[in-house]
Amino acid sequence: MPGKLKAKIVAGRHLPVMDRASDLTDAFVEVKFGNTTFKTDVYPKCLNPQWNSEWFKFEVDDEDLQDEPLQITVLDHDTYSANDAIGKVYIDIDPLLCSEAASVISGWFPIYDTIHGIRGEINVLVKVDLFNDLNRFRQSSCGVKFFCTTSIPLCYRAAMVHGFVEELVVNEDPEYQWIDRIRTPRASNEARQRLISLMSGELQRKIGLKVLEMGGNAVVGYLQCFDLEGESGIVVRAIGTACTLDKLSAGANANAYTHPNTAPASNACNSPSKDSKEPVFSEDPPTALGPLTPLRVLPSSSPPPFSSSKPCSRQSSSSDTDLSLTPKMGMGSGGSVGKEAGPLKMLLRQQTQTALEQREFPFFTLTCFPPGFLVHVGGVVSARSVKLLDRIHNPDEPETRDAWWEEIRQEIKSHAKALGCHAVVGYSESTSICEEVCILSAAGTAAILNPRYMREGCLDIGSGDHRFDEPSPPSCGFCHIPYDELNMPFPAQLTYCYQCRRQKVPDVLFTTIDLPTEAAVSGKGCLIQARLCRLKKKAQGEVNATSISNLLPFMEYELHTQLMNKLKLRSMNALFGLRIQISIGENMLLGLASATGVYLSALPTPGGIQIAGKASGDLSNEQHVLSIQKRINDAMAKNKEMYHINPPKLFALDPEVFHGINMELSEEAAGSPIPEPKQRSRLFRSQSESSDELSELDLSHGKKDAFVLEIDDTDAVEDIHSLLTDAPPPAGFYSCNTEVMPGVYNWTSGLQMFTSVRVLRLSNANLTNQSLNKIFTDMCENLLKSLYFKLRSMIPCCLCHVNFTVAVPEDELIQVAVTAVAMSFDKEPILEKLGDRAVFKGAGENEDQLQFPMELCAESASVAISNLTAKFTDRCSTWLELIRLKAHTIRRGSVKTSRRTQSLARSVSSSERCSPLPEGRSRSLRSTRSSGGGGGGTAVTVVKMTPLSFLPGTRLIKYLGIINMFFIRETTSLREEGGVSGFLHTFIAEVFAMVRAHVAALGGNAVVSYSMKECVFMENPNKNQAQCLINVSGDAVVFVRDTDQEATPTLIHTSCGGTDGPT
Amino acid sequence: MAVELDVFVGNTTIMDEEVYQLWLDGYTVNDAVKVRMVSEGMEEYEASAEVVMSDTMDQYRTFQMCERLLHNPTKLANQLLFQIPPHRQAMLIERYYTFDDVFVREVLGKKLSKGTKKDLDDVSSKTGITLKSCRRQFDNFKRVFKVVEELKGPLVENIRQNFILSDKLARDYAAIVFFANNRFETGKRKLQYLTFQDFAFCAGQLIKNWTVGAVGESVFLYVLDNMVEDMDVDLDKEFLQDLKELKILITDKDLLDQHKSLVCTALRGKTKVYTEMETNFKNLSRGLVNIAAKLTNTKDVRDFFIDLVEKFIEPCRSDRWASADMRLYLTHYTNSAHLLDTFKYQVVWDRYMGVIKSCIFKMYHD
Question: In this predicted complex, what is the ipTM?
Answer without folding.
Answer: 0.88
